């Protein structure tokens, strides 16, 4: 049986964290004396009341959790956080439609970065800060954050971590999961502070520094300006963004080992990081060629814009410094591949993940060798570690689910009247938690407000499934999940 009491207790406790996040945004509103103050006050009151109610229902809960409890907890946490997180937008009146507000908040927490707001600069500072906060807390995971600061709260932490973490291989640096969580959060904080400080030195205001750093280190994409980092027309800011996007797309375990333990060799030898770097280099070179050939860009500008967009798409950050929708269509194909592949497992990025791509390529290579040598035993090895057969089978199931869900979303959006190019890239963008699309109707610099409400709900569900890597959500819809034994 599912232990609902522990689920109520944990979600109730987590909602206090969401209320504290809203409190920070309220402080920003009070500082700027804008009209969203009461919206945050009411939202905090509703969130705290809900938290107390759930804590009461979970009173005297046994502090242990089974695998099914963990999957249900993680999915419900993200949904409830998004429902309550939508309240400041709705109550303030800046996004009066609950569908739009839920879409915006789900896009924030899942670090997708797709927005339905046509004019972000018209929002008060508190709401802009709230959008960035949703990115930042969702970057490494809401429940993962709790494991780091309140390990005793979540019984069965490893099961919860497995339900929320990204990638096929969950690397542990320490026997205690809470110690791992704290180490990874230390890297996350270091990247955030480093990014904000770099932007400040480059000439950004303090408010912009905080928002862009939270968005970039979470590989989210929400920005306080309509033209994203293109607003600044600064090569320095663009290259700072590229560096921190790339680092945020790297496995945080590797970053921890290199930054805090000095184990540089483990980083250099990592097969996934090599693949990640090669994809970025090849995609950038390809787009540079077409920008120079078809649009007469000079070498410096072609490098800057191509590298920026490639890193933004492959890390699923989704910020932009140019309108890639106006580039040659062949560059759309390259960026769509980057969007699908994604960056490294164990990072804040979405997508299929480089580690899965490496494993898949090795499986294909072995299959061709099996045709020639049918009796050969050919293990799949990644950085001297053998990938178990079960993990290989799970990867192929994951790929099948990924493509099937994208195909369903593409078909549904096309039936709603959205053109084929946009439907494909919207589906890929949501499933990979990227944000921008590539098309003429809803391009990388445009909002998603033109999508019908039914399409927004489909996209919201797809964003959640993409962030929790499909299995954690879809397993809830299987009959076996709800059986007693």
UniProtKB/TrEMBL annotation:
Keywords: Cell inner membrane, Cell membrane, Ion transport, Membrane, Metal-binding, Potassium, Potassium transport, Transmembrane, Transmembrane helix, Transport. The chain crosses the membrane at residues 7-31, 37-58, 70-95, 136-162, 183-207, 239-259, 271-291, 332-352, 393-413, 457-482. The keyword Transmembrane helix applies. It is a multi-pass membrane protein. One of its GO terms (cellular component) is plasma membrane. One of its GO terms (molecular function) is metal ion binding. It comes from the Bacteria. The keyword Acyltransferase does not apply. K(+) binds at residues 111-112, 220, 316-317, 433-434. InterPro entries: Cat_transpt, TrkH. Belongs to the TrkH potassium transport family. This is Potassium transporter.
